[in-house]
Amino acid sequence: MNTLTGNKEPALHNAMWPGVVGKGSGSEPFIGLDAMLQLTAAAEVGGVKFDGVDLFLSVPHVDIDSNDDDLKRLSDQVASFGLVIGSLVAPVWGVTGGGSAMGSEDERKRFVEQVRKACRIGRRLRDLGIRRYGIIRIDSAASPAEWMKDPAANTDRIASTFREACNVAEDYGERLAAEGEICWGGMHSWRRVVELLELVDRPRTLGFQADMAHTLLFTLGYNAPEDRLLPEPFDWSRPDQFQAALGKLTSALRPLTVDFHVAQNDATVKGSGSHDKTGHHCLPTDPNGKLDIVRDAGFWLRNEQGEPTRAFQHICWDGCMFPNAVMMDPKTWHDVLATMMAVRNAHGWN
User: SS3 for 259?
Assistant: First the structure.
């Protein structure tokens, strides 16, 4: 791919939650938001820098109960680094004050309330001028093991909870995106994601957030062998078979996708701290990575005719659960930015 075309769109963002997810109790210390912003703002490749960041609305980064003064300080903090804010992660899980989308009435109520708080923050940040685009990210906040006890009823409950969340989002002028991962019940395979979003039936308000690392695992059928798209075992020296599987996967999910994460994966699963096992994010230069990041991003960023979809105003790098020493190394963010630029130059636009 030509990496010198200099496309200006979509904007390039860095995720802040890798400083929090998998950190804390029983693991390495959190990396504060200010440190993550500094590392992001300092990265530069050929005069190009990150345009913005996507945020996790949970302490120690951003308190979901932030008041207007707190959000003004947040806006000023991010702007001081020459960055803007894009998508926001709603802390819908029980450990962060939410609850299972297929759980008890109280759990589901807490889930929707966390979405409401996130949408309020999103709208306030738009009013402050620091956020011009982006979605509110959710998932089912339930495990595949729990979901499998009664798949039909649990999917119905998740869909009902998501519809309530859509009502809230519409009140605030926000759009939701559900991220499918093998660790989220009812969203742990590509087919189940499609089934769930069709059941919710609110395409203007709820779409799919695609992460390249997590969707790769969909092709391997982790937690859903019936939906596996690659042979078992798979010979990774057969890129033709892998690309055919990605083609089928993205044909089903691309029309639903409203937010996109560039990432790398070595086809293994990993978890630390309170985070359940899910896709193992790798550095973009990892020799064990199974994705050709630039090539494979094209499955998501181009339509069936090979034209850029222009579906996203920004794309975001997601690299959860790297050791802190890797996170604090400026070279990490130089390499990430260079990869993001290559994706944009191959599949973006002016």
Answer: strand
152-193 tens-digit pLDDT: 999 999 999 999 999 999 999 999 999 999 999 999 999 999
Cα 169 to the center of its chain, rounded Å? 18
Place of tokens 């300080």: 73
Q: Identity (one letter) of the amino acid at 295?
A: R
Quick: pLDDT tens for 92-113: 999 999 999 999 999 999 999 9
Q: How far is it, in rounded angstroms, from Cα 22 to Cα 211?
A: 17
Is 42 within 8 Å of 336 (Cβ atoms)?
A: no
User: 5 φ, ψ to 5°?
Assistant: -75, -20
Q: Which two tokens stand for residue 260?
A: 């996109």
**How many Cα neighbours within 13 Å face the side chain of 250?**
22
Residue 56 is given by DSSP the state: E
Q: Is residue 246 part of a domain?
A: no
Identify which of 86, 93, 28 has the alpha carbon closest to the alpha carbon of residue 53. Answer: 86
Alpha carbon separation from 82 to 104, 158, 219, 277, 291 (Å, rounded) = 43, 39, 38, 35, 31
Q: Does 3 fall in a domain? A: no
Domain that holds residue 283: 11-217+253-347
**How far apart are the C-alpha atoms of 220 and 218, rounded to whole Å?**
5
Question: CA torsion angle for 268, 269, 272, 275 (degrees, to 10)?
Answer: 150
What values do phi and psi take at 46, rounded to 5?
55, 35
Tokens, residue 11: 């904007």
Instruction: Report if residue 5 sits inside a domain.
Output: no
Residue 42 forms beta bridges with which residues? none
Which residues lie below 8 Å from residue 73, measured CB to CB, with a gap of 6+? Answer: none
**CATH number of domain containing 272:** 3.20.20.150
Contacts of 225 (CB under 8 A, 6+ apart): 232
- Structural domains counted in the chain: 1
Bridge partner list, 209: 179, 259
- pTM of this structure: 0.96
Given the DSSP bridges, would you call strands 136-138 and 176-179 parallel, antiparallel or unpaired? parallel
Question: Distance (Å, rounded) from C-alpha 177 to C-alpha 159?
Answer: 13
Q: Is 179 among the domain residues?
A: yes
Is the Cα torsion angle 81, 43, 269, 31 positive or negative in sign? Answer: negative
